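Before anything else, study the sequence and fold tokens given here and see whether the fold suits the sequence. Record follows:
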Amino acid sequence: MPGYNLTVLGLDLSFAADVSPERIHKAVDLVHQRYKDLEGRVSHMSKERLLTYLALSLADDYLHDQGKMSQLEGTLQQLLTKIDSPEE
């Protein structure tokens, strides 16, 4: 399992993950971009509060995507059922 030593939002992190370096770097870039966007919309907010809003924003995106995926899986299951059922 590859190990990573990164600096994310000024914090040094070391961890091992069975994930490609490209995926790790995309995740870090996303966190940096989202943090920068939030930071630009508010003034005089502590880093802890910004990080909390960032975590909530990412969690909301995740939950939204999970809902969309569930809907797509339901639609796919319906289509598969129609394909498997002979028409009379």
